[in-house]
Every structure is written in C-alpha cells, then in structure tokens.
UniProtKB/TrEMBL annotation:
One of its GO terms (molecular function) is structural molecule activity. This is Phage tail protein. Pfam families: Phage_T4_gp19. InterPro entries: CHP02241, Phage_T4_Gp19. It comes from Agromyces binzhouensis. Coiled coil: none annotated.
C-alpha cells in the first residue's frame, strides 16, 4: 500500500542506459504502448467487424530537464557514441518521489537516441535553460522487481 509520500507527486525521473547514467530529468513524455489492430469484415455478418491484435507499437520518449554542468559529459557523449558505433542497449526510467523514494521503474529494450535539443539561448528573455532528449525503444523488459 502506498503512503502519501510514495505517491508520484512532485516526481523526478532517473534515467540509466547500460553503463551511462544520464541523471535526473524533470519531465518524461511518451512512456506507453499501443496495440495495433487489424480489422476484418466477415461476409454475411453486418453486426460488427473483427478486430485482431497484430503488433505492439512504442512511441518515442521525450525527457527534459534544466541544463546542468554534466550535460556534455552525459547526454552529448552518449548520443555521439551511438552515432559512431550504434549499439542498442537496455535502459531504465525510474520514477522517484519528492523525497527521493522509488515509486516505479520501467525497463526498456533496445534503447537508441533519436534527438537531443539544447536550450534556446536568448539574452532578452532570462529563464531556466532546458535540454530535451528523445529516445526510441523496442519495448519493455520484464523484471521481477516491483516497488
């Protein structure tokens, strides 16, 4: 049973990709799965159309956070390494509560970077500088651990 401090409110996301610890992120968007259906109409049956599941489709995941000192050492180096010698690894997105307790974790299969966007640099609008990392994956890895 989750207590009030373990509910995912005011969370941050820790991201690990094989030997690369990409650190904390403030937002995580696109974590999910879609079942692709194929429709088949049966002759003489006008009451419904058969729906058959064909495959699973995983959207890209977008992670963002304020720029920090370690950005070049973590994300940029990982993206550059993936381009020079592409290898798909496993990844983990761990959801942590405001008091840094684990709430849930998602293990990803065949993770590869899609896009990194640095901050928009403009002297006329001082604001928090944000970087965004977009990753693709080929599904979730089943693990026995739960929180």
């Amino acid at each position: 049973m989750l207590t009030d401090t373990e509910i995912a409110v005011g969370v941050h996301y820790l991201v690990h990709l094989d030997e690369h610890d990409l650190g904390d992120f403030a937002t995580c968007d696109g974590l999910g799965v879609e079942v692709v259906l194929e429709s088949r109409e049966e002759g003489g049956n006008n009451g419904f159309v058969w729906q058959f599941p064909t495959r699973l489709k995983y959207p890209n995941i977008k992670l963002s956070r304020p720029v920090s000192k370690g950005t070049a050492d973590t994300i940029v180096n990982w993206v550059v390494a993936a381009v020079t010698g592409p290898s798909r690894g496993t990844g983990r997105i761990e959801i942590r509560s405001a008091d840094n307790k684990p709430v849930a974790a998602y293990d990803l299969h065949d993770v590869i970077p899609v896009r990194w966007s640095g901050p928009a640099l403009s002297p006329d609008q001082p604001k928090v500088l944000v970087e965004t990392l977009e990753i693709a994956h080929n599904g979730f890895v089943r693990t026995g651990s739960t929180y």
